[in-house]
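Hi U.,

Before I forget, here's the chain from the pilot set. I'm dumping it here mostly so it's searchable later in email.
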Amino acid sequence: MEIRHLLSFKEIVEQGSFIKAAQMLNYAQSSITSHVRVIEDYYGRPVFDRLGKRVVLNSFGERLYRRVLPLLAGYDDLCGLKNEVGEPAGQLRIGAPESTMLYRLSPVLQKYKSMYPKVELIMHNLICSVMRGQLRDGSLDMAVLLDRVSEEDELICKPLFDEPMCVVLPREYPADELINSPAHAVLYTETGCSYRLIFQQLLVDKDIRADNIIETASVEVIKQYLLCNIGVSFLPEIVVRKELDDGRLKATPWKSLDPIRVQILHHKDKWISPAMAEFMRLLEEAALGWG
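Structure:
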């Protein structure tokens, strides 16, 4: 069993079919099939259930897949060594929530790519809990979280900036703070979002009924709903700063002794490549000017 067999196995799982995996890897389908056969012969058991024309991971295949991911992430690091003599190069996989990706990372990305065009940046828009899991299994190289700082098993955390948060209200809202307003929905970010839980507790503390709910993963969609007088929400202040300044929205700041922070996370055993080290350096430099 060789690395190429495991690479084919991983691609089949992620593409959902032998045909698509063969196309992605530029193999004949027969080669992909033979790679899987080698794996199954090695372990003496199948890794897929073949249901008509569909292939589905069985329980053993799922166990194998979980172990293959960190192995192949390490293999990518090893292969990347030949490109890392001199300027940073290779692939860098970064996770970040949408609001941070749009409003904090854009200038960093622009500067980074102008300096290091040979680095392939793969940006993943994910919630914090998913990013932590993907850092642990090797699917991400690093993450820029927007969350409260906590002890992280296996992960190294570097806080960068306390992100101002606020309760955001439409201009037409009948008060300057949260009240029970049946005409306005509660606009939630997706389940698992770090600051959704804070908003839920705020509603409980203020005895605000939350039986009229709209949930979406996009802060940009939430902002448009606020502008359309559909509901109220809880967002990073930077997302709505322009709209607050020109009076199209209004907000009340949120203060806490345990604030939401922009923070860099990576696995404690992750090798910090030149490409990753430079991205972290530019991000830390940029955070000094955030406000």
